[in-house]
Design a protein that fits this description.
The protein starts with 6 loop residues before the first strand and ends with a helix. The chain has helices at about 35-40, 60-70, 70-75, 110-125, 140-150, 175-190, 210-220, 235-250, 265-270, 275-280, 310, 320-335, 340-350, 365-370, 385-395, and strands at about 5-10, 15-20, 40-45, 50-55, 85, 95, 100, 130, 160-165, 195-200, 225-230, 255, 285, 355-360. With about 400 residues, it is of the alpha/beta class. The longest helix has 17 residues, at about 320-335. Helix 4 (about 110-125) crosses helix 5, helix 6 (about 175-190) runs parallel beside helix 7 (about 210-220) and helix 12 (about 320-335) packs antiparallel against helix 15. An eight-stranded parallel beta barrel has the order 7-8-9-10-11-12-13-14, surrounded by four helices. A four-stranded antiparallel beta sheet has the order 1-2-4-3, with no helix packed on it. Strands 5-6 form a two-stranded antiparallel sheet. The chain is built from 15 helices and 14 strands. It binds NADPH dihydro-nicotinamide-adenine-dinucleotide phosphate (NDP).
Length: about 400
């Protein structure tokens, strides 16, 4: 236990200062290696002779409270200091390497208070990018995020939406000029913002010429309704086509893609898109880093009734004995690396230099806390560990 002399409590501020050099929190007391790692991390402090211990996360706070007593614990509300920011491909925009998305959670699982709480938690950990789409919870997800966004300085945030599935009418769907314009205007109204930073064409549209889509997105960007436009789950060939058309007509080309990328789904990101990173400086905001939770290990012994795959049974098609067997073996790697399975899976995504940001999904503060700790295990993913993972994945 740190003595009173060892500590200097910064009441009312977000930091606590200590003069001890050794880890503040004894390793043996933590039930979770990641919590221990986070509690013990020290960074430079502006006060001479003092060290600053940065503590984040509800789990860590809860454990410190148990170890050091409630009064002391109250001062440990620090803002994460070491979130890293990556350029969105060759664009000048900086996005936090971990970001936060709202699919299937904002609305169906999280009400406005929880949305606010989790967004605050992510923001305080350094997350600046929040992802959304007109399709999510039929617009309710954007509405909830819009309420939460009012608490922030717009300049501190990178906000996205995606257009494709806007409703059931014949012109509510797809990438026609009409739906792109109307869908964007509706998304901005729900999000209560004048512009989104990133606007994605949520899927390729076989019923609209790519030229029409490129021209409409060019106009949307020039109108200042979006700063960068991009694609989501387009083939490399379709993205190439969009660039060719943009070049030919003097239009603004797409800057980024939003593909699925995780340990179980990697072929398109790593193989098919490979030439595009160099050729166009394409940025990426990758989705489902945990394959909807399969990579947490929570489905190893069946489908828990309070889980995503129980609520969205169509996603169970992605759960197979082969995948579960891989996750079981990966859990041994995680254990050796001193992290959780979720953290290993997310850090593995971060290890790829073509990833601009990993969009996290979380239905609770505890999950978000755990997932935000992923960047800290990155250094444990040495070439040898990556090779061991590759051997298990065999994909
Ligand atoms: P994940 O693959 O990380 O899945 C997130 C879900 O897994 C959570 O909602 C939770 O579900 C479970 N989970 C997460 N962390 C933990 C944990 N530590 N322990 C246990 N369970 C956990 O991400 P998403 O599929 O949500 O994708 C992330 C974001 O990407 C989305 O929010 C969206 O913004 C974007 N996206 C984009 C798509 C596109 O087409 N462009 C498609 C899909 C997503 P539960 O607790 O309910 O079981």
């Amino acid at each position: 236990m740190p003595s009173g002399q060892d500590q200097e409590k910064a009441w009312g501020s977000e930091r606590a200062l200590v003069s001890r050099r050794e880890p503040l929190y004894p390793t043996g007391k933590s039930t979770s290696p990641s919590v221990c790692l986070r509690v013990c991390r020290m960074s430079r402090c502006s006060t001479p002779g003092k060290r600053q211990v940065v503590v984040t996360g509800v789990t860590a706070r809860r454990e410190i409270k148990a170890a050091y007593g409630g009064v002391f614990a109250l001062s440990w509300r620090a803002r994460e200091m070491d979130m890293k920011y990556r350029r969105l491909g060759k664009a000048g925009l900086q996005v936090s390497e971990l970001s936060f998305g709202s699919w299937l959670t904002f609305g169906p699982q999280l009400d406005v208070d929880h949305v606010k709480k989790l967004m605050r938690q992510a923001f305080e950990a350094g997350v600046n990018f929040f992802d959304n789409a007109e399709a999510y919870a039929k617009g309710q997800s954007e509405e909830l995020m819009g309420i939460a966004l009012a608490d922030y300085r717009r300049e501190d945030l990178v906000v996205s939406s995606k257009i494709f599935w806007g409703g059931s009418g014949p012109n509510d769907e797809g990438l026609s000029w009409k739906h792109l314009m109307e869908g964007t205007n509706n998304a901005l109204a729900r999000l209560r913002v004048e512009y989104v930073d990133l606007l994605f064409c949520h899927r390729p549209d076989p019923n609209t010429p790519i030229e029409e889509t490129v021209r409409a997105m060019d106009v949307i960007v020039r109108q200042g309704k979006a700063f960068y436009w991009g694609t989501s789950e387009w083939s490399a060939e379709q993205i190439e086509e969009a660039h060719r058309i943009a070049r030919e007509h003097g239009c603004i080309p797409p800057a980024m893609e939003q593909p699925q990328y995780n340990m179980l789904v990697r072929e398109r990101f790593e193989q098919e898109y490979a030439p595009l990173y160099e050729r166009y400086g394409m940025g990426t905001t990758i989705w489902s880093p945990l394959a909807s939770g399969i990579l947490t290990g929570k489905y190893n012994d069946g489908v828990p009734s309070d889980s995503r795959l129980a609520r969205e049974s169509w996603l169970q098609a992605h759960l197979s004995a082969e995948r579960v067997a891989k996750v079981r073996r990966l859990q041994e790697v995680a254990s050796d690396a001193g992290c959780t399975m979720s953290q290993l899976a997310i850090a593995w995504c971060l290890r790829n230099e073509h990833v601009s940001t990993v969009i996290l999904g979380a239905s609770s503060s505890e999950q978000l806390d755990e997932n935000l700790g992923s960047a800290e295990v990155l250094e444990a993913l040495t070439d040898d560990v990556m090779a061991r993972i590759d051997g298990i994945l065999a994909n």
